[in-house]
User: Fold this.
Amino acid sequence: MHSDILRLGLIGDNIRASRSPLLHRVAGEMLGLLTTYDSLIPADLGQGFDAVFAECARRYRGINVTYPYKEIAARKVAVEDPLVRGIGAVNTVLFEADGPKGHNTDYTGFRAAYARLRSAARPGTVLMIGTGGVGRAVGFGLAGEGAAALRLVDRDPAKAEALAAALHAAAPGMRVEVHADAAAAAIGADGLINCTPLGMEGHPGTPLARAAMAGAGWAFDAVYTPEQTRFLTEAGAEGLQILSGWELYFHQGVHASRLFTGRSLDEDALRARLRDG
Assistant:
């Protein structure tokens, strides 16, 4: 790797519309660093995740990892932060001389995004649909923000049960329940969260009918391509306060950039550049 080029990449299955390459190239420009950021789709490369990851260790300073590989990546790296070990998923990997190190800027990014929108307001009782890699990070983020209760729904109940167990251990003061039906679990919820791929480009739809949103106070969608998903559009039409996946994208990217470069960005200037782009 040439020392004057910061070589980065993103591994994921449905990333052609991802704006992460733009964020990190702009961030590099703002920091005066020549930056490359490659999109790595294992199926397109004719390789499995393990082979792509091994090649990244030879070619890149660091990578981001997205759906559906965050939990797999966590098993291939050293994770120094015990909280991130509890999450069991990583979205940022640094390739160090002594091996790959894993981080989770979805967790820190969600908390930053939530605080920007809702300030000191507690999440209350939250329904979260989807308990994969980003769902695990958001679940821990909700615990950190003082959520009173978290209702989990997933097509794979075992995944939801596993996250519930991890959260019981890490945040015993938060009530965690696993539910089979999202609409039923939405009754009486203050917050509604989509952490499934439903709504992203290539995966149309919504995980919760609009009628089930009535009475809630706020909604967050981890999907950001497109930013205005059906889930958020219908939540907004029901009068809920909206936290878009773009905010998670932005904050997790800022935090990943700091890990990749060891330097801090002018966040307002970066936000303006990305919004203009």
Summary: The mean pLDDT is 96. The longest helix spans residues 245-261. The CA atoms of residues 141 and 263 lie 24 Å apart. The two ends are 29 Å apart (CA to CA).
